[in-house]
Design brief:
Enolase-like, domain 1; elongated; alpha+beta
Length: 100
């Protein structure tokens, strides 16, 4: 089962005001950072979703996602991927519906 299409959606999820996102004493930019939502589609028409953690560099995201295209989901070595993105790939594959 090969990955044929990947879509990346960058979204800002507003957070409620907390000590870490306080405008005066915290880091207000924390409430404005982007998350990546990735939609992975296979040659069998199955779609899985995953989330990329905030503050992951865009260059790393683009490089990793491009390396997934055309690959068999069962043959990618998770240990060879960046730690944060290995988890994302695993989540996308586990999210693929059971096709049996």
């Amino acid at each position: 089962m090969k990955i044929t299409r990947i879509k990346l959606y960058m979204v800002v999820v507003p957070e409620r005001l907390n000590w870490w996102s306080d405008e005066v004493y915290g880091a207000p930019a924390y409430r404005k950072t982007e998350y990546g939502i990735v939609e992975v589609e296979t040659d069998q028409g199955l779609t899985g979703l995953t989330e990329i953690r905030r503050f992951t560099p865009m260059e790393l995201i683009e490089h990793s996602l491009n390396s997934w295209l055309g690959r068999d989901v069962l043959e990618i070595n998770l240990a060879a991927l960046d730690v944060a993105l290995a988890h994302c790939f695993e989540q996308a594959v586990l999210d693929l519906p059971d096709h049996h």
